[in-house]
Amino acid sequence: MTYSGTPGFTWYPLHGGSAVDDSDTDDGGVTPTAARALSPADTIKNTARETTPLLGFKSRWSEAVRTRLVPHPSRAGLARKASTRAIVVDSGSRKSTYAQSLFNSLAILLGIGLLSEPLAFSYAGWVGGTALIIFYGWLTCYTAKILAKIIREDPTVRSYTQIAAKAFGPSGNVFCSILFCLELFTVSVVLVTIFADSFHELVPLYSSDQYKLIGCLILLPTVFLPLSFLSYASLLGVVSTIFIICVLLYDGVTKYEAPGSLWQPAETSLAPASSIKFALAFGLFMAGFSGHAVVPSLALDMEEPERFDDMINNAFVLATFFYGLIGAVGYTMMGDSVSAEISQDLLRMPGYNRPLNELCVWMLVIVPLTKYALATRPLNITLEMLLGLGQPDTVPVQGQRRWTTSLIVERVAVLATVICTSILVPDFSATMAFLGSCSAFVLCVIGPILAKVAVEGRCGAFDALLLAISVAMASSGTYAAFFVAAD
């Protein structure tokens, strides 16, 4: 969602969380749950099963063989009951403490959205940027608590899509699934763009588009790896996020002349540069607060669920602080000439510690390579289920080969589509703005408020005002993203 990141979907987390667990529901839905700890044993254990929360389907893998849950009443019921019993026993012994839940929430919120925060400030100006980031931090925290309240009041609701189904019926579930797929696809495009742009800054031997094609060859094997090999990317994502913040602060403090210095600020603006750029800032800021798909899991996973509101308040306060810090520091150092990705300026600016900054950017090359497969895994599984590529228990050898070939073709096609989209829309800021304005606004703000209205059967004046503001910002931000991408 970082999936900033949404923004955020690894599943879970793309934005830098730990491992993945899942909770079955009585209707067969699957809910992503942030892991309780960062131990490798838990990571491997929790990711041994591959799941998708999008359409309520479950896909389990054993080495290279996947078993499809055939919709036979007796078999499906037995499988679901057995799965539920196993998970209840497991989850009861490993609930998350307050501190672990806070860490997981921060890990989900903080991610690739950090890279575009200085640019968002340059588009919105000091006044607009400060107002937007504080408003979005409060607004997304408010809607996160709405989701938690709904699942607390109805024990049968355990996932975001089930909240949508409760509020809007089956059509709400389908609509959320489409948005989740769109968000995951956009995040995948962003990851490829970051990889290629960062690689080009380090080794300008080839163009960014050529590195995207090279990245295609590197990424292709990863989409077939089991999640246990990929989950350690979550920890790497957390480390890279912290490292970027530290390096940027270090560079700003150790350089005394502008540009690139905190002691002598670059030229900045108080007001937005233009209406289009201000609208782009809507999506750039919102993309960092995307992660509401996992809020129900965080609430259900806490040892003390009554403290969820306090925990999520602290998580969003800290996330807003870090986003504001990186945005303000980067904008102060680089001014209105800041790049779409602040990491690009780290290598272009003379006077910085070159080896340190190169290490920072190399991490931005490696992290997308490891996170791409995590980001696209739920998307791939959803498409495979829709295409009927789930494999029966026993098939002839010829059928097994046909299924394997179809699976390879589907995953290669998704990767090729992502690469082509990244080449056709190379503007990182436009892609992030679309991610924030379109999917993040709908999933993180508009959707939860509408769900509250539908469940309660009334719409207060305050919620109506928030809806009007959010729809206006989402619409204008999406238009601006398309306008810039087409320019």
Explain what this protein looks like in three dimensions:
The protein is mainly α. It has one domain (about 20-485): Up-down Bundle (Amino acid/polyamine transporter I), CATH 1.20.1740. It has helices at about 40-45, 75-95, 100-110, 115-155, 160-170, 170-200, 210-220, 225-230, 230-255, 275-285, 295-300, 310-335, 340-350, 355-385, 395-425, 430-455, 460-485; strands spanning about 20-25, 30-35, 60, 65. The strands form 2 sheets. It has a two-stranded antiparallel sheet with strand order 1-2. The model is unreliable at about 1-95 (pLDDT under 50).
Radius of gyration: 22 Å
CATH architecture type: Up-down Bundle
Strand content: under 5%
Q: Give, in spatial order, the strands making up the sheet with the most strands.
A: 1-2
The largest pleated sheet is described as:
2 strands, antiparallel
**What is the CATH top level name?**
Mainly Alpha
Q: Tell me how many strands there are.
A: 4
